Predict the structure.
Amino acid sequence: MVRSLAERLRAHEQQRARLLEQEAKLKDAGRKARTRRLIEAGGLIEKVGLLDLDSNALYGALLTLRDGADDKAQIDKWSALGGRTFAREERLRDEGKEAIVLTFPAPLPKDATTTLRQAGFRFSKVLQHWEGLARFADAERLAQAQGGEARRVAAAPALPAATPARPEAAE
């Protein structure tokens, strides 16, 4: 079947519109990724305590970093230092925490669920309880404030090591 010129033009316009829409989505995704990266960089600047520097001093400090950014060995040193520091901070943050389940006799009000989420708990729709890592005393206070209870979750027993399959003895 032969399509008329008008039909072919309409099809090309639709294809062009789809391509423009895809281009806009890609541009938007790129903008969002860049914004996220800028926010992360600002957070890191605040985390190391440089946010209080005036703009000229902060810019100068960043310019000195730029001078070392071409040196692979320097970048490796920075990566190792950052990784160790993040790991140490995570260990300190989680020190003394254990798996805890919180149960409540009735659904909780919005402000209580917000408090639980901020404390690192999440609600399990399947099991109908709140679960997370926390210090037991803190979790117990949170639960009791809403008439609930906290209990420790026992660690799962380690699975036995798999034994390699042995060939059957030939008869």
